[in-house]
């Protein structure tokens, strides 16, 4: 039986990263995000077709997330060297270009497994997106088939609903009253 993650402390992690400009390698841990909200998302592989649409859309919206005291971290099972090559490749040849957040390497696949998104028989992650609050509690998760990209607008809406501090009815939007 699958273990519930929402409402529990987010599984801890430490991974190698490459900066969004593709120039610096580093390390990141869940504890680095204490005191901030985190949109933590998995994608299957670098140099694929749906993934760059999601990653660049999240990067384009990074200022909106920052205004909500929220960081973004993307992760796949690829190495930081593959991430760097993808960031530094032009969009005309399937690259990402510059991003406003880092990409992490889950080359051991442990983090994808801990978050319940690893497709063991393929060795890649599903499209999993998690919102973790400033205290480290996992507040939201959505996992979908790798054929379908996620929605930046819905991620922003859910984040704002979680930050509203109240009960949010169906189709709640920022500015609407809580129940």
From TrEMBL:
Protein name: Alkyl hydroperoxide reductase subunit AhpC
Coiled-coil residue spans: none
Source superkingdom: Bacteria
Pfam families tied to this protein: AhpC-TSA
Family according to the record: Belongs to the peroxiredoxin family. AhpC/Prx1 subfamily.
Biological source species: Paenibacillus forsythiae
Keywords associated with the record: Antioxidant, Disulfide bond, Oxidoreductase, Peroxidase, Redox-active center
Annotated ranges, domain Thioredoxin: 4-164
InterPro entries: AhpC/TSA, Peroxiredoxin, Peroxiredoxin_AhpC-typ, Thioredoxin-like_sf, Thioredoxin_domain
